[in-house]
Amino acid sequence: MKLENETILEIVPTFRVQWEEVQDCYVVLYPEGMVKLSQSAGEIMKRIDGKKTIIDIINDISATFEGADVTEDVMKFLEVVYGNGWIRNK
Amino acid sequence: MATVGLETNNQSRPLWLLAELTYRCPLQCPYCSNPVEMAKYKNELSTDDWIRVMQQARKMGATQLGFSGGEPLVRKDLEVLIKEARSLGYYTNLITSGVGMDEKRILAFKEAGLDHIQISFQASNEELNNYIGGTKSFQHKYEMARLVKEYEYPMVLNIVLHRKNVDQIKDILDMTVDLNADYVELASTQYYGWSRVNIDQLLPTKEQLIHAESVAREYQEKMKDKMKIIYVIPDYFENRPKKCMNGWGNIFLTIAPDGSALPCHAAGQLPGLEFPNVRDHGIDWIWNDSPDFNKFRGTSWMQEPCKSCDEKHKDLGGCRCQAYMLTGDATNADPVCDKSPFHETLHNDVKRIDKLSGNKEFESKPLVFRNMKNSKDIMTDKKTPEIV
Ligand code: SF4
Ligand code: SF4
Q1: Top mutation candidate among B302, B303, B314, B315 for ligand 2, by most atoms within 8 Å of CB
Q2: Is this prediction's ipTM beyond 0.90?
Q3: What is the pTM (predicted TM-score) of this model?
């Protein structure tokens, strides 16, 4: 798949993203396993909801971080987690 | 799995809660990792006890929860427990033989919020599956596995490998492909609990392992985008031990059916432990302050050769239960390690079995099946698993 600006992404239903209070971070949960997300990874994953396009996500994060250009970082991250099978096209 | 943005921190927390709801089980697998003394665990925790345990562990950061046993489906309150667990925010795993399941229950679990069902198979064909499990169960399991997929659970199939079924690895993998599994765990028998009693009949030969590994690799390659195959060789054949449970009291918390808290589900056999019970203590105290959970934490308990070994942080000296079983002292190095003075004894035992296997008389020695009767016999006869 090519990740385009207008692609709408969703979390693959066999994975779950959730905020963990005790560990102070977002995590991805799957059968018998867990990956803790760094702050920036969490910012991206929590916005993937089956409604937003990639460009929405980028703009949204950029707005949260005072207009910083995050395009490249977000795209790189999405490619990796797409390869992990965590996300897919809606 | 690639781990972008992975952060690790080293504070120990009970991230993984294994709830052994019961030791009752309709199957009788001769490699079962439950304690051979399981007949003495009579007084099962109540629904409220389990709910309290789940709440307390969750507060401390537990995220993965495994409902296991025995056969967890035997518990009538399983649906209630799943629902509570899910609302607490756990990722809920049901680890089952599939016996005792039907479509109605699969649906009820879904509604309760169950995240994942792992079904175990004993073999890929009816005859051997039913023989090893000591029950007629193959067709039913197969049907249940199909339904698990239909109800959109991630499907993990677990097959414990040993000398009697490892040559069928290709058929086993074909079956998992057929069932559309997402993950397949080909777990080599670990030799504690019942499998230690049956080691002469279960330990695979070197030749079998070489064959199994090549088939497993072939399927890993072939199925790489569809199915994740995890294949682990039995550590008796290695020269360095595994970092057992990722370290004692580091991330795993097991609660046995009677409420005793253990750092590992096999630790019940270790002498000198007090087995703090969740009926008397909170999880916080058990995890942080109880003598048991601190006993083999970190590296300060070690003696030579581990104590001065430069690899000690890598494997933490291996498995405490294995060290105890094979050397009589739980603070010794795991004899899987070739720096252990007991390594050669272990190795010779492996070689002895390798030589004898295939021999008609040796192979016809009966398996000791895992059931309450055999458990009582072993306890009263003190026929405890022989130690080297
Ligand atoms: S290994 Fe077999 S006997 Fe033991 S609990 Fe699992 S299904 Fe039951
Ligand atoms: S001597 Fe102990 S610490 Fe060193 S590699 Fe062997 S088991 Fe591990």
Answers
A1: B315
A2: no
A3: 0.88
